[in-house]
# Entry
Amino acid sequence: GTTNCTVGDLVDLLIRNQFLAPASLLLPEAVGMAQEVTLPLSSQETLPVHEKQQPIQEKEVTSVKPVLYQNTEKQPSVPPCFSQENSSTQSSNADFHNFCFHDLESVTNNFDERPESAGGNKLGEGGFGIVFKGYINGRNVAVKKLAAVVDVSAQDLKQQFDQEIEIMAKCKHENLVELLGFSSDGAQPCLVYEYMPNGSLLDRLACLDGTPPISWNTRCEIAQGTASGINFLHDNNHIHRDIKSANILLTETYVPKISDFGLARASVTFTRTIMTDRVVGTAAYMAPEALRGEITPKSDIFSFGVVLLEVITGLPPVDENREPQLLLSIKDEIEDEEATIEDYVDVKMSDWDAASVHKMYSLADQCLNEKKNRRPNIQMVCSFLQAGQLHYRANAEMCGFLLVSSAGEPFNHCS
# Structure
């Protein structure tokens, strides 16, 4: 350790790492001063990011008009607010359809919270809200109603809403869920998304509601598409912060689309580390540094590693009745030679082969490295999954690892 440290040095260290409670016991006035500091959006330094920081405003937003009509002979009646001509707009959100809250109530049967399987409209929960199925202009949609959260103020909820719209406005990619519009005139703000008929990867891996198991080849394609979506986010200076199988939605043909951008935070200087005093995300997927409030692109890589384990095993990320309870802990058992990855392959899947499973597990293993700088970046992950020759050596000064299978061979396409 370092010698001749003062109490002030210790307090500075605690504040930098967001341990405000112990710091306040030593020097209360120092903590008070630290909490008053705000981070300019143009800052290039690693500084605390506070909850009240306003979302980054983009200079321009690509115009994307949702297509709400299908070419059918008979269309259901359209409430006035659903008419494109009557679509009121606000500031930079003008390129999305502005729906009336009461009309969204109507198309979701007054936000019927019974599950869809029980005749209701509820599709799921997550990311500060409940998602409902609706029907607008001949098209199924998913309506997310942002609800009040116990420890989140109305101001923070409004910021969450504005941030999600801003992020979705500029994030258009085949592996990201498309935002069609929003509503801000009712009791709760709402977001309207394209509807994903096959639900979440989490539910399909569990064969919920009697759905058939996903084939190994399809699972590999889902992994590739998800990595492509993360790559797009990272290329556009966004960290998702909550990559998990429940946030990977599937189209009718099992094309994966990442959802729930409300937890994403744009970083002006993408290579910097964000320190946050609100730990966001699902613990079973979170990297060690993310649990401490330190968010980097490599946090998403760690979470994706857990998803890869789910793809291989078909198991949920956490199960209190299972040993080990956390899915990522099977990595320790395999390293200790107490088990092999074949022991954990999804028994519901019949078309897998040992070589390709080993290769995907090798990638998951490296994504789950506890040291973030030893994890591959998302470009390497995409190349690893998509290309025919997947033998990459990272810059030794940056990473110092080689992406190879557990048998020491390059990781080829898992098909």
Notes: The CA atoms of residues 202 and 245 lie 5 Å apart.
